[in-house]
Amino acid sequence: MTEQPKLLIVEDNARFADTLATEMTDRGYAVQTLDSLSSVRDADVTLFEFAIVDLRLRQDSGLDVIQAIKSRSPGTHVVVLTGYGSIATAVQATKLGAAHYLTKPIDIDEVERALHTTDLANDAVPIPTEFQSLYRHEREYIEFVLAECEGNISQAARRLGLHRQSLQRKLRKYTPSN
User: Fold this and answer.
1) 52 with 22, same domain?
2) Do 96 and 154 fall into the same domain?
3) Residue 80 falls inside a structural domain
4) Does 108 share its domain with 41?
5) Comparing C-alpha atoms, which of 7, 11, 17, 18 is closest to residue 57?
6) pTM above 0.70, yes or no
7) Residues 87, 89, 92, 94: what is their CA dihedral angle, to the nearest 10 degrees?
8) Do residues 167 and 138 lie in contact, with contact meaning Cβ atoms separated by under 8 Å?
9) What is the pLDDT of residues 103-148, one digit of tens each?
10) DSSP readout, 49-103?
11) How far is it, in rounded angstroms, from Cα 14 to Cα 150?
């Protein structure tokens, strides 16, 4: 008999946590729910292969929860769920080790896919409608800085506070593929 994958859900909305836990239990996961950063710090997070973390937890930040989980259990696959998505927090969550950043409302199938998808960097991720204007502004600003630097990518990257490779990756993303 195969052992059930262990899933930690960190969510302060008890009704949503219970619903999510029930759905994931029905899909074969052994689920534990917690509702705060202190409860995560007190738990043995090394037991969990997967974690679903809400970005806003009453007085705590889900970003701190990600850090607490990843510092003690680097192999835990963390998925962030939030009703308050932004590019800035998505970037922060990813830098802290989250594999995916999903905005609520969410389809349970999408959550489960995110739990089992590890190669996000090579996936073509569509930009959610609510972020498209931010995406456009970022692209326009990068193009402006690049023009100011007369096309010098290294200089533009320094001005933007990015690594050269990160800027090149962003520029490739903005260039339509043929």
Assistant:
1) yes
2) no
3) yes
4) yes
5) 11
6) no
7) -70
8) no
9) 888 889 999 999 988 654 434 444 455 555 566 777 777 887 888 8
10) SEEEEESEETTEEHHHHHHHHHHH-TT-EEEEEESS--HHHHHHHHHHTEEEEEE
11) 54
The DSSP H or E segment spanning 166 is helix 164-174
Helices (H) and strands (E) counted in the chain, each on its own, are 8, 7
Answer whether residue 91 is part of any domain. yes
125 φ/ψ sector (left φ>0, alpha ψ -120 to 50, else beta): beta
- Nearest Cα neighbor of 55 from 6, 88, 19 is 88
CB neighbours of residue 73 within 10 Å: 18
Structural domain that includes position 19: 6-122
- 178 belongs to a structural domain: no
Q: Are residues 118 and 136 in the same domain?
A: no
Same domain, 144 and 105: no
User: CB of 24 within 8 A of CB of 9?
Assistant: yes
* C-alpha distances in Å from residue 123, one per residue of 22, 38, 99, 108, 119: 29, 34, 12, 20, 7
